[in-house]
Amino acid sequence: xxxxxxxxxxxxxxxxxxxxxxxxxxxxxxxxxxxxxxxxxxxxxxxxxxxxxxxxxxxxxxxxxxxxxxxxxxxxxxxxxxxxxxxxxxxxxxxxxxxxxxxxxxxxxxxxxxxxxxxxxxxxxxxxxxxxxxxxxxxxxxxxxxxxxxxxxxxxxxxxxxxxxxxxxxxxxxxxxxxxxxxxxxxxxxxxxxxxxxxxxxxxxxx
Length: 207
Hints:
alpha+beta, single chain, 2 domains, glutathione transferase activity, Glutathione_S-Trfase, 8 helices, Glutathione S-transferase Yfyf (Class Pi), Chain A, domain 2
């Protein structure tokens, strides 16, 4: 059985859990991360030298980096609805996944660490304000995309891009700050809330 190492509150772990839910993949999860077993332990570092969660162990195969794990699970499944097999459709899904990991994540990091995590290293009000502004601007890009598709990130069909971005939008909505009114994003979240995987691993009160 697939083993997932990482605490359930982690956004990146929840990407993997939601993907497993969509693909009906059974798994066993172990708590690793802040408040649980330390990823700095030698046994964990042997699996992931970055000391970050999640990590999966699938038989004798070990993989880290949440988006790579989600892609692997899709590629290893008979189901093709999350990651299309045709090159162009798949590239669009992966484009938005990569955007989430690079552009969007970098936008919110300072504000989230200061406002939600209470990090002493992230309390500069000017930097928090700049991070919030950048965060809103990036969610505005998603707003325009969703207004165009009228449904999900890449079109009419739910995909792996919606797993990673749905959790990101959930974080944006739960962070204590003022937000612009993005009606397409709010309608999108209502659609995601119809999925049991999101209700379990996304809309669970964790930003």
